[in-house]
Write a structure and sequence with these properties.
With about 160 residues, this protein is an alpha+beta fold. It has eight helices and four strands, in the order H-H-H-H-E-H-H-E-E-E-H-H. The protein has a four-stranded mixed sheet. A hairpin with a 2-residue loop joins strand 3 and strand 4. The longest helix has 15 residues. The two termini are about 25 Å apart. Bound molecules: FE2/S2 (inorganic) cluster.
Length: about 160
Amino acid sequence: MADENQGELTARLTPILDRYEGRRGVLVSLLQDVQAEFGFLEEKVMSTVAEALKLPLSHLYGVTSFYSQFYFKPRGKHIVRVCTGTACHIRGAPAIQARLEDELGICAGETTEDLVFTLETVNCVGCCALAPVVTVNDRVLNRREQRKLSGWIREQRAP
Ligand code: FES
């Protein structure tokens, strides 16, 4: 992405911009599609979108910073989330978070240097009966599956 020239960037953006052309109130959806295409909202992408929409770049950042679903830095191939909602907190989420931070070598909210893992916390994924809950790429892991998580993490890192 960093080496992507403006022509390639525009070629990837054009179908998205065309899809929303002339429609009002679709900025968030458009930016979701842009993020889905590029993985995150790099400044160069944001400024190209702002220019195409004839909107101030600050407006785009104002909108995207309001929503936690938008990302401005590269994210890992695998998104590991620890639920820190009340039920999960009571049933051991802090220890799980600490163990995963240790195993991955990053803090919650960070991405490993090799871009394989992003570790995040989330507030209740709606499966409190399974607490404590961890999700991997939006798949909820029960306790038994969580026991296999360390091995799975090692496998993902294997050369
Ligand atoms: S608090 Fe963790 S799933 Fe509800």
